[in-house]
Amino acid sequence: MEWIRAELKKIEGEKLYRKRVPVEGLKDFCSNDYLGLKDHPRVVESAKKTLKDYGLGSGASQLVSGYTKVHAQLEEELAGFKGTPACVLFGSGYLANVGAIPVLAGEGDLILSDELNHASLIDGCRFSKAERKVFKHRDYENLEETLKKERHSYRRALIVTDSVFSMDGDLADLKALYELSDRYECMLYIDDAHGTGTVGEGKGGLEEFGLGWRENVVVMGTLSKALGSYGAFVCGSEELVELLVNRARSLIFTTSLPPAVCAGALESVRIIEENTELIERLREMEKKLFNVLSELPYEVVYSGTPIIPVIVGDEGEAINISKKLFEKGIFVQAIRYPTVPKGRARLRFTASLRYSEEDLEFLSEALKSLIKL
User: Fold this and answer.
1) Does residue 118 carry a catalytic annotation?
2) Stretch 46-73: mean pLDDT
3) Which one of 46, 113, 128, 166 is the catalytic residue?
4) What is the Cα–Cα distance from 360 to 289, expressed in whole angstroms?
5) Would you tell me which of 60, 128, 146, 291 could form a disulfide with 64, CB atoms 3.0–4.6 Å apart?
6) Could you say which DSSP state residue 257 is in?
7) Is the pLDDT of residue 298 over 80?
8) Is 225 noted as a catalytic residue in this protein?
9) Across 358-362, average pLDDT
10) Which domains does the chain have, with CATH numbers?
């Protein structure tokens, strides 16, 4: 249809056109497989065994017949890992956020959201029908100003934040948010997708800040990043989990995760618990990668997490660098609007234990040749 062709032409003209690219044969420097667990022998073997026992799919939603002892074991392990009483699985991080947030806040309630929160958090807030106020990124004075003015006018209030922000790699100050949530009687919803397995000895944002779980705190995380699997979870009180099972539409009306996927994630959690030195090794790899990226004549941001963006600015230039790296056998995506603000296009590099010293040298040589162009 003509209007579709016109829309695509407009996207191309704005340098925002995207397409999927198979990464076979390329060195991937932008994956979220931070600990290199997606093909760890123990993870693969656990998934294979469960695949033989249960088959490929789960067959139904959790509330029909798609909930097995493997799902229950993973939920129990994750709750202990996160230091919470209970946990419930979701099909993805997006499904977790758009399912859980509308259960926690609705009409007559207030949601306060960091301006750089992930799109799934933004959509979850929109779907909730609650009043939404966006505070400046990591500006907790701005947040408190809003709470002082607005909190008394609403039944319930929910503060929503990433722990590790997915495009900048910086951390929310969870201590400050704990204090504000207590002072103004708010719930605190923490998206720990990129914090799980990477900070706090792998246990995530709360552990990183030395915080224990409280009843007003909800922790979401994913299985698809440092855990090397697929899916997501929400941790909190037993009552919260019961409520989500009964009210979260993205859980109730979605086929549950395949048991083999859950088994692989379960093994990943156990590997992290048994080998906390993995996180120390990840820190070392981050610093090495940062040193390599510092050769570029752009702003390079390192905040002590595996996400290290190179801020190029111009969308076309970011695409051009990405293409030239691709030609040299290196895969790193150019991240552009609306994922990041206009004029803040970037190459989102990530550190991973999959990299060898030779890989970093390969990247360094490729970047040096680009700088000369």
Assistant:
1) no
2) 97
3) 166
4) 7
5) 60
6) P
7) yes
8) yes
9) 97
10) 16-31+276-372 (3.90.1150.10), 41-274 (3.40.640.10)
